[in-house]
Amino acid sequence: MFPIQLAPANRKQQHPPSVLPCRTSTATTRTTSCSHFFSGNVDARRRNSATPVCQSSEPFFPTSTSTTSKAALIAQEHKQQEESVPLIEFRNVHKSFGSKHILKGASFKIYRGESVGIIGSSGTGKSTTLRLAAGLLEPDQGEILIKGEARRGLLSDDDTSDKLKIGLVFQSGALFDSLTVKQNVGFMLYEHTSMTEQDISAAVAASLAKVGLSGVERLYPSELSGGMKKRVALARAIVTDNSSTNTHVEQVIMYDEPTAGLDPVASTVIEDLIRSMQDPLYCTHTDESLRSNLQDGCGVSSYIVVTHQHSTIRRSVDRIIFLHDGKVVWQGDVSEFETTPEPIVRQFASGSLDGPIVYM
């Protein structure tokens, strides 16, 4: 899918003055005291692989911290979550195709710095959710908010004053068979910008380099492996219009079954690539003016992955949204996914035929 630009609110991200979202290492001893953003009724908790919100240079939960102070930190996390404005929010969203009801009141939030997985059985509306978020479909009922502002109609109906860029990577890659890799990756630049051939070539080369595919511009999709096709599709989603005044626009990338049909090793390559594409620079500054001055990185502050594969869930995401029968029935972090007694989660994780998920 091509990069998509959406219109968010003309409001500034509402964080307390001392709070700056960032990424952190997974080391046991941390040098930052951090909190996490979650949506709905999910508890905000610490986890090793998560993207946090840094508040000070003090050690993370030092051994001298009392139970009371830990409780205070957790309470503060909840407060920060409520005060922050989600990049994407679904409010009681319904979507039908003819007599087929796909979404029946789905509600969730995606915050800056998050890596979120959307899981669930086939036909529950996961791919539809991505298309709605991208503005390619319009909800029948409910609201979709981009940075706190309700989007009216489709993507083409939006104002473009203060942009959030959303890239959608389809399950199949959706590459044009008759075009070369360069033409596929640069398609949006050829069609919707006034960039010169030389500038487009440079932008395509830079985008391909980010996904580890330098030097393949002249190849056709038929000459690529399955994993290479998925990486080319990702390069197309993040390619940058260097002629625009908003070169470093914040991005959210959405992946629809990125590892489907790949062997375990190829899946690991894609899973690690998805992680690496998240730009720590865009998790460091809440100030839009500071963010616009950044010169490096691809600006992917958050991403969403639709998947059925357990390896992708464990390696690529920190928080999980479970869709069933058109609604969000469970949310939690990856560690909770492994331990929760929730019947529908346990059935999905084990592949059991006994449980709420029933195939006719």
Mind explaining what this structure looks like?
Helix 5 packs across helix 6. The protein is about 30% helix and about 20% strand. With about 350 residues, the chain is of the alpha/beta class. A hairpin with a 2-residue loop joins strand 5 and strand 6. It has 2 domains: about 240 residues, P-loop containing nucleotide triphosphate hydrolases (Rossmann fold), CATH 3.40.50.300; about 60 residues, no CATH class.
Topology:
Elements: E1 3-6, E2 20-21, E3 33-35, E4 53-56, H1 67-83, E5 88-97, E6 100-110, E7 115-119, H2 126-134, E8 141-146, E9 149-150, E10 164-169, H3 181-185, H4 187-192, H5 197-210, H6 226-238, E11 251-256, H7 264-277, H8 288-292, E12 300-306, H9 310-316, E13 319-324, E14 327-333, H10 334-339, H11 343-350
Parallel strand pairs: 7-12, 7-13, 10-11, 11-12
Antiparallel strand pairs: 1-10, 2-4, 3-4, 5-6, 5-8, 8-9, 13-14
Helix pairs in contact: 5-6, 7-9
What are the defining features of this structure?
alpha/beta, 4-stranded antiparallel beta sheet, 11 helices, 360 residues, Rossmann fold, globular, 14 strands, 7-stranded mixed beta sheet
Brief sketch in words of this structure:
This protein is of the alpha/beta class and 360 residues long. Helix content is 29%, strand content 22%.
The quaternary state of the protein chains shown equals: single chain
**Rg, alpha carbons:** 20 Å
Q: Please list the strands of the largest sheet in the order they lie side by side.
A: 1-10-11-12-7-13-14
- So, the CATH homologous superfamily of the largest domain? P-loop containing nucleotide triphosphate hydrolases
What's the CATH topology name of the largest domain? Rossmann fold
CATH class of the largest domain: Alpha Beta
Shape: globular
Question: Count of DSSP helices?
Answer: 11
**How would a textbook summarize the main sheet?**
7 strands, mixed
